[in-house]
Each structure stands twice: as structure tokens, then as C-alpha cells.
Amino acid sequence: MNYFTVTAGDGRSSARCGVLETGHGIIETPCFMPVGTKATVKGLTPRQLHEEVGAQIILANTYHLFLQPGEQLVGELGGLHAFMGWDGPILTDSGGFQVFSLASLRTLEEEGVTFQSPVDGSRHLLTPERAIEIQEVLGADVIMAFDECTPYPVDYETARRSLRMTARWAERCKTARRRTDNLLFGIVQGSMYPELRRESAELTREIGFDGYALGGLSVGEEKSLMYEMIDMTAPLLPREQPRYLMGVGKPEDIVAAVAAGVDMFDCVLPTRNARNGMYFTWQGPLVIKQARYRTDSLPIDEQCSCYTCQNFSRAYLRHLFRSREILSSVLATIHNLYFYHRLMEKIRMQIKNGTFADFMKNFISNYDIS
Predict the structure, then answer these.
(1) Are 184 and 231 contained in the same domain?
(2) Identified catalytic residue from 10, 93, 210, 263
(3) pLDDT in tens, 308-360
(4) Cβ partners under 8 Å of residue 131, min gap 6
(5) Which of 239, 267, 295 lies at the terminal end of a domain, its last residue?
(6) Residue 284 zone, left/alpha/beta (φ > 0; ψ -120 to 50; rest)
(7) Pairing relation of β-strands 113-116 and 31-33?
(8) Which of 212, 215, 259, 345 has the fewest beta carbons under 10 Å from its own?
């Protein structure tokens, strides 16, 4: 099945446009996936995601849904799409990152990871086979292999042992697969060591997946080092299959990663920062709690046509935030996700027009991250 097609490329970088076909719709890439950890994108309804934001695909979390309400309940109620009322594509991560970053009293062995649930204290064993089973019961369109996400910094030998176990787990994930109506992505690890990234990419390619993800980045390393790992790893992955950069989502990072040939992104930043009163604009972040916006009649961004910017002033949005009104999070989330999706649209248009390199230069020079 030819489920991914590269439709355009940029002559001055590795940026490319593509079309990814799934059982619940077609996705134009490069794309951004809003994070719906517990089967909900915080602050928005599925209708708002469709109509106000224009989201093509969302991400849900295997670890959290396994613990609560449990994948069997979701399956019995028609799968994740029916459960949450979203009829578009869904990607589920394998839970590897959450097991290693959130779970307590965990024990790592070749079989898998035993951990204590933060919900009720119960003990669980999550194996590669179990991670695939859970995701298939949930019914996601794109599922991820179970991996070990190493912390940063980590020594060379630990990173090497980890990536090799991740590769063995990836092979078990592929063997455990039962459904044929989804896409299975493998994950490249290797921390910040170029030779280990290369080894991990080779091992993962040898197993063979429907797509490939760059994992273990944006975990505390310097931005320049993250860019170096993206730039050297992306070309090692098959050109004819989608490439997914996990958990990296600042606007300037997305633009740089697109230039390296990355197709898919997810991050909690637009929704989390919205709840904390930070708006993304074409000039850079805007923190609405600042006193200078108390009487400001302008919209958040005069270049933005989202519902929030078309109807509300900075003064009103500051009032909502300082009053801790629920509407503050809703309106900020609409704006931030709208901004991200218009950014991806602009990127795709620039690639198709052959002007992405100029767009990238102008965006980086005009986007104030201070």
C-alpha cells in the first residue's frame, strides 16, 4: 500500500510536502498534531478542533488511557474515535516516554517495564507486546513502537545499551502487530551521540516500519545540539516514508526541523502555554498578564483571523486570565492551535512555491523568542 507520497520538495533545503493516507482521512504534511493526552485536547471540543483550528490529526497517550479508563472500556465503546467524538486520524504514542518520566518505582528489564500507577498505586508490567495490544484496542490510525527514552545527559555506554534494547523491543512490537488497518512507526534513539543515532537509525530501518520517529530530543539539551541531531538523523531515514519528530514544538524549532526533512510534529506547548496566559503570534510570544495590556484594545495578533483575534481585545483576554475564568483557556487555546496550523499551512505553501528557504530566513529573523 502506497500510504505516503512526497508531493513537493524545496530546492535549497530538505523540506518536503507529502500526503499521508490513514483509515480516518488524508493528512497533508508537514503537519502539527495537537496533544489530546487523555482523549481530549484540553479546553476544546472536537468541533472546535475541526472548525476553529483546522486540525487534521490529534495525538492521544497510551500510558494514560491504559491506566484510566482502561483500553478495554474504550474498545467496548467503539474505540477511541467514537469514545471521544473525533472522526479524524489519531496517533497514539506507546507510553514509553511517560513510563520513564512519570511512573514511580519502575523496574526496567528485557521483558519490559514494571511500574507503579500514579492513579491508584497498582503495579503493572508494560511490554512491547502489551503496548501494541493496547494501541490496537484503542483503534488509533498511527501507533508507535515501545521504546526506552533515555534522559539527558546520559553516558555513552548507557545510551548504547538503551538504543539496542529499543531496537529489540521494536522488533517484538512489529511481531506483535495484529491489525492491518493502522500504521506502525519505529523510533530512533541514541541520545546526543551521532554514531549512536546512526546505529539506531540503521537498526530501526532494518526491522522495517511504516514510518520513523526521532525520539529522545527536547529533553533538556541545548537547542544547537538538538538541531545537530535532527540534521544528521533525518537524512538516515527512508525518503519515501513519513518522519516524525516527537515532542518538539516551538515554532522556530518546527521551521528548522522541516528544513531538515521532518514531516510530523506534536507538542503540548500551544495548549499548556495557553492555560498559562501565553499566546503565540507572528512576532513572537505574548504574555497576556503583563500590565501593559490592561487597556489594550488590539487583538492578540492583527495578522490572525482566528475566532479569538476577530472578537476579543487584549484587555478582555487579560481580564479573563487574571480572573481565572475558564474562557481564558478556551480562547487562548483556540488562538495558539490556530496559529500552529496556519504556520504549517504557510510552510506547505512555501515549499510548493519553492520559496521555503526565504520564508525560513524571514521567519527566524522576525520571530522574537526573548
Answers:
(1) yes
(2) 93
(3) 999 999 999 999 999 999 999 999 999 999 999 999 999 999 999 999 999 99
(4) 62, 94, 95, 96, 145, 146, 173
(5) 267
(6) left
(7) unpaired
(8) 345
Contact by Cβ (8 Å): 190, 161: no
Residue at 116 is within a domain: yes
Domain shared by 67 and 203, yes or no: yes
Residue 100 has pLDDT above 80, yes or no: no
pTM of the model: 0.97
Query: CA nearest 193: which of 165, 238, 225?
Result: 225
- 238-252: b (≥16 Cβ within 10 Å) or e: eeebbbbbbbbbbbe
**Burial letters 5-41, b for 16+ CB under 10 A, else e:** ebeebbeebbbbbbebebbbeebebbbbbbbbbebeb
How many distinct structural domains can be found in the chain? 2
Name the residue with cell 516500519: 209
The cell for 166 is 529499543
Of 210, 263, 266, 301, catalytic: 266
Residue 127: its H or E element = none
Q: How far apart are CA 118 and CA 122, in angstroms?
A: 8
Q: Where are the alpha helices (DSSP H) in the chain?
A: 46-48, 62-67, 71-76, 80-84, 96-101, 128-138, 156-176, 194-207, 223-233, 251-259, 269-275, 307-311, 314-322, 326-353, 356-366
CB 101 within 8 A of CB 247: no
Q: 3-state class of 126 per DSSP?
A: strand
Q: Strand 104-108 and strand 264-266: pairing?
A: unpaired
Cα distance between residue 186 and residue 364, in whole Å: 31
Residue 138: inside a domain: yes
In this structure, the strands spanning 123-126 and 113-116 are: antiparallel
**Lookup: cell for 108:** 526496567
Q: Is 266 a catalytic residue?
A: yes
Q: What's the pLDDT score for residue 103?
A: 63
